[in-house]
Amino acid sequence: MQAPLVDGFGRVHTDLRLSLTDRCNLRCTYCMPAEGLDWLPKPELLTDDEMVRLVGILAAMGVRTVRLTGGEPLLRPGLPGLVERLAALDVALSLTTNGLGLARQAQALRDAGLRRVNVSLDSLMPERFTALTRRDRLHDVLAGLAAAKAAGLEPVKVNAVLMRGVNDDEASDLLQWALDEGYALRFIEQMPLDPQHGWNRDTMLDADEILARLGERWTLTPVPSRGSAPAEEFYVDGGPATVGVVGSVSRPFCSACDRLRLTADGQVRNCLFAREESDLRAPLRAGACDEELADRLRVAVAGKKKGHGIGEPGFVQPDRPMSAIGG
Ligand code: SAM
Ligand code: SF4
């Protein structure tokens, strides 16, 4: 076992967000422009071998959980094979996806060692879903969710972002639907990570407002022991069902953050909102040994800032949008 990944504030890093691609087959209005973005050229993407090697080094440094994300991670060719190799590294693997194609892949991913999945879904209204994602694919997302449940990828979690005047009237309907279907719903505050740099705090529904809306229909009681998890969980009408709220902006959880990120092109980021990245791909391809790569990872984590600083004077949104960092 290598020395753990600790930053200057004593936070030990055990959780990795690994982006498998920056491409996507939806165009959620808050995440991507209609025409998409300038995708990374294929030679710049880490290969499966490179990803497996880096995750192996990270696992030896104490990383225990790895969430595969993107862009849309299900677009990565040969995903079950990669999942099988990563699962063999003794890390718990989960996946964040828009659900398209999950109906086809859920069982193979489960068989390969995937443990859990989070599916993003912001509206249950077909026309609104189409307007929000610029694709008429609600049916595929719902089929993907059902397939995930049938494959035993439990608990199946659903992530929803609420925006004022767009889908904020659906908070309670989304929760009722999730309760009926047996999915664990989490609302996530919208963050300033869009490529258009159009985020506006007034459009975002914050945790207080989300909880107030849900509170009109249900009694919510906090679930104790949050640990380093970003979501605050609440029992719905006494439980056992719960609902989560991720108040990244209004209730930051930076002091307990145990997370680092690796982009699809091999850049380490110690925070979603970091302005700097550390390149691992160049040394990796130049023949660096594991110890050298581990040192670079240690330095990258050591330089992590105390908090994301949203709302503070001087806050500047990172250059990469969420989809290219790995949300
Ligand atoms: N394509 C996959 C998906 O949609 O689940 C994985 C990547 S996506 C960037 C991961 C999550 O980030 C999604 O739940 C999406 O709603 C969320 N997201 C994207 N932009 C966001 C923003 N500006 N603020 C908060 N969440 C955002
Ligand atoms: Fe694609 Fe996910 Fe971004 Fe939507 S939120 S455009 S599904 S990366």
What does this structure look like?
The structure is a single chain. With 327 residues, the chain is α/β, with parallel strands linked by helices. It has a single domain, classed as Aldolase class I (TIM Barrel, Alpha-Beta Barrel). Helix content is 29%, strand content 17%. It has ten helices and twelve strands. The chain has helices at residues 48-60, 79-87, 102-112, 126-133, 138-150, 171-181, 207-215, 281-285, 290-302, 322-325, and strands spanning 15-21, 65-70, 92-97, 116-120, 156-161, 184-188, 220-222, 232-236, 242-246, 259-262, 267-269, 278-279. Strands 7-8-9-6-5-4-3-2-1-10-11-12 form a twelve-stranded mixed beta sheet. Helix 2 (79-87) runs parallel beside helix 3. The relative contact order is 0.16. The structure holds S-adenosylmethionine and iron/sulfur cluster. Iron/sulfur cluster (SF4) binds next to loops.
- What ligands does this structure carry? S-adenosylmethionine, iron/sulfur cluster
Tell me the count of domains.
1
Could you tell me the mean pLDDT? Answer: 94
CATH topology: TIM Barrel
Number of strands: 12
Low-confidence stretches at least 5 residues in length (pLDDT < 50)?
none
Secondary-structure-based class equals alpha/beta
User: What is the molecular shape?
Assistant: globular
Helix content: 25-40%
CATH homologous superfamily title? Aldolase class I
Largest sheet: 12 strands, mixed
Strand order of the largest sheet: 7-8-9-6-5-4-3-2-1-10-11-12
The percentage of residues in β strands lies in 15-25%
Cα-to-Cα separation, first versus last residue:
29 Å
